[in-house]
Amino acid sequence: MQKLIVEGGRRLRGELVLQGSKNSSLPILAASLLCREECVIRNCPALTDVYAAARILNCVGCRCTFSENTAVISPQTVTGTAIPEALMREMRSSIIFMGAMLGRMGECGVSVPGGCELGPRPIDMHLAALRKMGVDITEPGGSIVCRSRGGRAKGAKLTLAFPSVGATENIILCAAAAEGETVINNAAREPEICDLCGFLRACGADIAGDGGSSIVIRGRDKLHGCEYTVMPDRIAGATYLSMTAAAGGEMILDNACPAEMEPFLNVLEQTGCSIYTSGDRIYLRSGSRLRAVRDRIRTMPHPGFPTDAQAVLMAALATAEGTSVFEENIFDCRYRHTDALVKMGADIQILGKVAIVRGVPGLHGAPVEATDLRGGAAMVCAALAAEGISEISRICYIDRGYEKIEEAVRKLGGRISRV
Ligand code: EPZ
Fold first, then answer.
1. Is 130 in the pocket of ligand 1 (CB under 6 A)?
2. Does 93 contact ligand 1 (Cβ within 6 A)?
3. Dist CA 267 CA 277 (whole Å)
4. Cα angle for residues 390, 393, 398 (degrees, 5° grid)
């Protein structure tokens, strides 16, 4: 089991090119199943989750190869419609292959997906929507067998009880090749949804309204291939900015997406950091000590504060002057990283979905264990601010979402090694 060794307590200074988005490249890789010609997808991050998606594509007969950060998929022939449970369990995103498979083949056999343990992560909204699109779904012995009546899903008018990112993606993937028009009301508005729709439009799909709460998709019989570049990873960007904010120093983030990161940047600015943006560059300077954020930090669906940035910002605020209050509204159990931060000297009290973070003068290094993807990144963030040495284990979680995190941190001037 690999570990990260971090020597903290040093100000950071450096420049970093931001990786491509994990949460955009995963649905786009699934969407390539809908195409009848080769797809070239650039700026794919080199992540274990991305390679898991490639294994699923290869498993159903679509050859998927990588060179550097470019994926080349040949989806001309799909030879299977069942995804083995072992592959489904590797990540949460495996579930959106259901919509893509239904769009391409009219049927699929999947099972409950894996993914970070952030509380119960049901897929009831996914299944309810697909049933309304004429898909018969049975769940024999834990697996999920789907079959579109008449061999092709039908367009439907759908309203989501909650703007679920995954459910929105699954519906879009199925609707892009369904018969007729599908309307999704209360759709997720995350930038990754827009990136998925951008890819599908480049393949000839008829989709409008993405980025808003109502998306209209008119199904197409066939989609052609395309060349597409995945958007930057706004959460990885928030992570690296939080590291420099926590440790103090200054950094430049290249190939970023300031507009899509605004909900996070607006809060980070309240900590006293100086933030300037110019085109796709973000410049941050963090002085001696951060200020606590006065208003409650509520995680909300986009364009609210992103739940995926909650842990890393909390790590930065652990040594701020004053008390910050978080409210986690998206997942039931997304404070698992706080035990490790407390072990490093943070003062954090959890009251249900509220976390009260009383800033302490400093943190000290400690051996800690990553609990999930963003929680693990938060530990790296805290370790860079902490005096002394920290050892972070179970970093397989971190590798799911951060491309060569130790190289990125070293580019910012941090002392870190993988052992
Ligand atoms: C996506 O997860 C992201 N993952 C998550 O990022 C992100 O935190 C989340 O969206 C919210 O922005 C990927 O894109 C691969 P949801 P997803 O469906 O699709 C409940 C990361 O760190 N829900 O919007 O699973 C669900 O339990 C990951 O990169 C239902 O109840 O999120 C959760 O409480 C973590 N029934 C809430 O909705 C459903 O059918 C939001 O889930 C679906 C969801």
1. no
2. yes
3. 15
4. 105
| Dist. CA 255 → ligand 1 center (Å) | 25
HSE-CB of 229 using CA atoms within 13 angstroms: 5
**This model's pTM is above 0.85:** yes
Q: Which two tokens stand for residue 186?
A: 């209360």
Active site residue 116: yes
What is the distance between the alpha carbons of residues 78 and 51, in angstroms, rounded to a whole number?
19
286 CA distance to ligand 1 middle (Å): 31
The pLDDT tens digits for 231-278 are 999 999 999 999 999 999 999 999 999 999 999 999 999 999 999 999
Q: How far is the centre of ligand 1, averaged over its atoms, from the C-alpha of 343 (Å)?
A: 28
Residue identifier of the C-alpha nearest atom 17 of ligand 1: 166
Domains and their CATH numbers in the chain = 4-17+232-418 (3.65.10.10), 26-229 (3.65.10.10)
Give residue-wise pLDDT tens across range 122-134. 899 999 999 999 9
pLDDT higher than threshold 80 for residue 357: yes
Pocket probe mutation, ligand 1, options 96, 98, 121, max atoms within 8 Å of Cβ: 121
Q: How many CB atoms lie within 10 A of CB 348?
A: 20
Measured CA to CA in angstroms, residue 158 lies from 97, 187, 326, 353 at distances of: 20, 9, 32, 30
Phi, psi of 71 (to 5 degrees): -105, 135
Phi, psi of 108 (to 5 degrees): -165, 155
Dihedral over Cα of 167, 169, 173, 175: its sign: positive
